[in-house]
């Protein structure tokens, strides 16, 4: 009798524990996913969190309640458990489609205007400041490339989304993939089912880390040129900026940081307007005769990388389209965002170059008069420092997922403890990544060279080469001849531009590295 009583009491305690865990877990999941959606709506906060391969570490595990057992209660609404390490087994009845549907519950969809804001925020960032320098070495051909890159990136964004869909048995077009990584894996299957995803992840990590380095470089550059009379070198300003950024290693989420991203973006648009207004005030002195029809063969390939890098947004487009209320509006959204970007970038680059001509610097705000430069540059430094955590956190998430949390395929032990806390050596690796961005910024403090190298290597690959290749591989039987022609032409032209830009940028970086090492 006593044994039976203890058994019933144990069952009651277990039931209460499960209900409490289910309520808390469901509430946490709803809050967590709502916060993530808000960050996406603010704009490009979780670049990699929008990637399904990256988000596999954020799996939704349906808790088994006692509803299936005799005498049990039905599961509670929202009875889901948010697992960071993704080690929880899925129930047998939960297919991929069911999990996808569950993960979408409670996530408000975004409108086409909100999706357009995300794309605009990605392709109209502070790296636009390097475009006048591209005109310096490319002249009118540089302006043509700004238009050409907008057209190509808009087209490749659309065909990348087309790779997410296939016809089912009923002849209906259905979404069968969720991310850039899924598309890459599908192209390499069945021989190498994970090779494509790994290539995309490596390219993404390189681009994210290089973006972090660029933020440190531009912070040191802007502060040094804002206060040239202070006995502080550009390297010292970069060290100060990195000291401010070191707490990024302790980040658990981007909720706090993402609140500032909208204000930072708006401030950046205001700064662009101020620069253009100053240039217009000197319209009488514009040097139209300085805009060349010929190019600098040695430096123009670097300009190609700069222009391409300013348009990179493909990596998060699949998830962005999946979160839209009406995915049919995606093509229209891509059209007007890239048309607007093309016009604004072209005008900004041309007007700024006409104002300073051959004196145009790598970061155009360095050409402003000292009275205006300091104020504008301080705002830009604040934006750079607040923008740094976004690509840094995304890169950390990909590295942790790929190397430490990929189940049995992980190369190293999990960097999170059983309670979900980051282990000390995991924190050390994060700090090491921050220090690495500092070292790169110190030894290669050249904004244009780093931007050109990144655009030529990962930007051209993710925006030109891979989308056209995947489109041909997955949908070649249904493509019209002009689509095949466009895809092949983009792949060939993109490959040539990528190789030439990478070689020239790398040569410039090696020379700069040697010069700084000798100093």
TrEMBL record:
<keyword id="KW-0968">Cytoplasmic vesicle</keyword>
<keyword id="KW-0472">Membrane</keyword>
<dbReference type="GO" id="GO:0060077">
    <property type="term" value="C:inhibitory synapse"/>
</dbReference>
<feature type="transmembrane region" description="Helical">
    <location>
        <begin position="205"/>
        <end position="224"/>
    </location>
</feature>
<dbReference type="GO" id="GO:0098793">
    <property type="term" value="C:presynapse"/>
</dbReference>
<dbReference type="Pfam" id="PF01490">
    <property type="entry name" value="Aa_trans"/>
</dbReference>
<dbReference type="GO" id="GO:0015187">
    <property type="term" value="F:glycine transmembrane transporter activity"/>
</dbReference>
<keyword id="KW-0812">Transmembrane</keyword>
<feature type="transmembrane region" description="Helical">
    <location>
        <begin position="484"/>
        <end position="503"/>
    </location>
</feature>
<dbReference type="GO" id="GO:0015179">
    <property type="term" value="F:L-amino acid transmembrane transporter activity"/>
</dbReference>
<feature type="transmembrane region" description="Helical">
    <location>
        <begin position="427"/>
        <end position="444"/>
    </location>
</feature>
<feature type="domain" description="Amino acid transporter transmembrane">
    <location>
        <begin position="109"/>
        <end position="505"/>
    </location>
</feature>
<comment type="similarity">
    <text>Belongs to the amino acid/polyamine transporter 2 family.</text>
</comment>
<dbReference type="GO" id="GO:0051939">
    <property type="term" value="P:gamma-aminobutyric acid import"/>
</dbReference>
<dbReference type="InterPro" id="IPR013057">
    <property type="entry name" value="AA_transpt_TM"/>
</dbReference>
<protein>
    <recommendedName>
        <fullName>Vesicular inhibitory amino acid transporter</fullName>
    </recommendedName>
</protein>
<feature type="transmembrane region" description="Helical">
    <location>
        <begin position="260"/>
        <end position="280"/>
    </location>
</feature>
<feature type="transmembrane region" description="Helical">
    <location>
        <begin position="332"/>
        <end position="354"/>
    </location>
</feature>
<keyword id="KW-1133">Transmembrane helix</keyword>
<keyword id="KW-0532">Neurotransmitter transport</keyword>
<feature type="transmembrane region" description="Helical">
    <location>
        <begin position="141"/>
        <end position="165"/>
    </location>
</feature>
<keyword id="KW-0770">Synapse</keyword>
<dbReference type="GO" id="GO:0006836">
    <property type="term" value="P:neurotransmitter transport"/>
</dbReference>
<dbReference type="GO" id="GO:0140800">
    <property type="term" value="F:gamma-aminobutyric acid:proton antiporter activity"/>
</dbReference>
<feature type="region of interest" description="Disordered">
    <location>
        <begin position="65"/>
        <end position="98"/>
    </location>
</feature>
<dbReference type="GO" id="GO:0005774">
    <property type="term" value="C:vacuolar membrane"/>
</dbReference>
<keyword id="KW-0813">Transport</keyword>
<comment type="function">
    <text>Antiporter that exchanges vesicular protons for cytosolic 4-aminobutanoate or to a lesser extend glycine, thus allowing their secretion from nerve terminals. The transport is equally dependent on the chemical and electrical components of the proton gradient. May also transport beta-alanine. Acidification of GABAergic synaptic vesicles is a prerequisite for 4-aminobutanoate uptake.</text>
</comment>
<feature type="transmembrane region" description="Helical">
    <location>
        <begin position="300"/>
        <end position="320"/>
    </location>
</feature>
<keyword id="KW-0966">Cell projection</keyword>
<feature type="transmembrane region" description="Helical">
    <location>
        <begin position="374"/>
        <end position="399"/>
    </location>
</feature>
<feature type="transmembrane region" description="Helical">
    <location>
        <begin position="450"/>
        <end position="472"/>
    </location>
</feature>
<dbReference type="GO" id="GO:0030659">
    <property type="term" value="C:cytoplasmic vesicle membrane"/>
</dbReference>
